[in-house]
Amino acid sequence: MAFGGTATELFRRSPAISAGRPAVGILIIQVKDMLMKKLINDPRSVVDEALAGVALAHPDLLRVSLDPMFIVRKEAPRAGKVAIVSGGGSGHEPLHGGFVGVGMLDAAVPGPMFTSPTPDPILAATQAVDGGAGVLHIVKNYTGDVLNFETAADLAEAEGITVRTVVINDDVAVKDSLYTAGRRGVAGTVLVEKIAGAAAERGDDLDSVATLAETVNSQMRSMGVAIAPCTVPHAEEPSFTLADDEIEIGIGIHGEPGRERIKIEPVDRIVDRLLEPILSDLPFASGDSVLLFVNGMGGTPLVELYIAFRRAAEVLSEQGITVTRSLVGSYVTSLEMQGLSITILKLDDQLMELWDAPVQTAALRWGR
Amino acid sequence: MALGTDWALDWLSRTAATIAVQRSHLNTLDREIGDGDHGENLDRGFTAVLTELASFDDDAVPSDVLKRTAMKLISTVGGASGPLLGTAYLKGAAAIVDLPELDGAALVAMLTAARDGVVLRGKAMVGDATMIDAWTPAVDAAARALAEGQSEAEILDAAATAAEEGALATEPIVARKGRASYLGERAIGHRDPGAQSSALLLREAANAAIA
Questions:
Q1: A50-218, which class in CATH?
Q2: Which of A313, B114, B146, B158 could form a disulfide with B88 if both were Cys (CB 3.0 to 4.6 A apart)?
Q3: Region of residue A182 (left: phi > 0; alpha: psi -120 to 50; beta: else)
Q4: Domain A222-348, what fold?
Q5: Who among B40, B78, B122 is closest to A148 (CB)?
Q6: Tens digits of per-residue pLDDT, B118-141?
């Protein structure tokens, strides 16, 4: 086998690398019994090289610090404005770095692939954006993220920065929070970042922005499905495996399992399976006005997302729920995972106004 | 024989060596129930600790070594393990602060404080299939060995053996904390990687005391 061995071993063996010349554009890593192709140079430098690219692509919006690693809005810190910091493991792009800019995040802190950043870069980002009005941390509910952000918030408070934290847990796939680490933060995180970002931009104070973020979190529910797994570049195997005809309902954004593994079905039927727990959980009711968000997991064509959107809108309409705002695209991804998630957020006039407010980031732009 | 700074340094360099050897096994355990990077993350952290160990003054005490280890782990490991293990070393250091040598009572105090710190931060109990399933039996066994008048090395050996049994005991149970908790019944049959790595580092504490 020409490409045997782990990704790292293979890389060491590459003559182009040992001679210090640029590597070829495609790296092939041995994954179980197959060869996995990735458009990378070195599994160990994926996050650094991507961030260097982000810095070069969006100098009008942001600045990148490579050590410690964080992305800040170009004009940060802004005196008197509440700053919003989010972050988490890499591999979910454009979350969070793609949402740094006017009307959304002041800073994003990317960790290693699928691994929370440590407290020091979170602290450094918090210090870099603090304009004296306090900092809101938006954290997805994963044990590592919560612990590292908690530690960073303690350190920031010790330096005299007021920090409020909102933990996002929109994933209805996790049933019983008493016996688990609780519901996970998934695609709905984008909606919280957008709406809280708009509130901070118009000058709301820290408590108001934090309360609003909590409101958005409590008014939304999400659930996902995967039809094919992803592979972390430095791992030697996919994060999980599915048989050719199997899908995982309730998948998490790192490939963690959800509610059940079933045989593949037409997408309309899958959408119904995702919507049922979402709609019954809050619950949403006839007469509600909602934002419907169909999110791709990274390897799903947009055309399939629109098919799913069509069915979801149809089901909501049958239940008397009006879709007044929408978002369709791959915004919270899991590398090349094939799948999608559906998020529904109950809207009121204030949330709608903040959703519509101008935003200028790498991944979301409107109204300016 | 009471244990000094040489023991603390030896403990951590042995831990770093063991984690490097066990890296792939810990990744495998983690891939079965989590995201497959536990060995990767700990290896990165303890490699950084190893570099840190080279720079101690002659008048350093064991608590200095543990405190620096804690800060290094918190800043390099990431995930849940970084803050949790970092807290263990930090609280352990606080319990033996400025003591030049550790007797049995100091070791038990150190282990107890370390375990309490992890519980406080991670909010897990015995039976949740986390590193606490290794730490709590270890603390209990160390306290028993102390009460029986055993030596420092015997106390640490008792702790390590109990931690190893505790890690093994996470196999037949459902995880209730961390990423593995999302698996529900599907976590049954898998050893918790955090309990396993904690057992490894407690074993090296004993090995360093025997050596």
A1: alpha beta
A2: B114
A3: left
A4: Hypothetical Protein Tm841; Chain: A;domain 3 (3.30.1180)
A5: B78
A6: 998 888 999 999 999 999 999 999
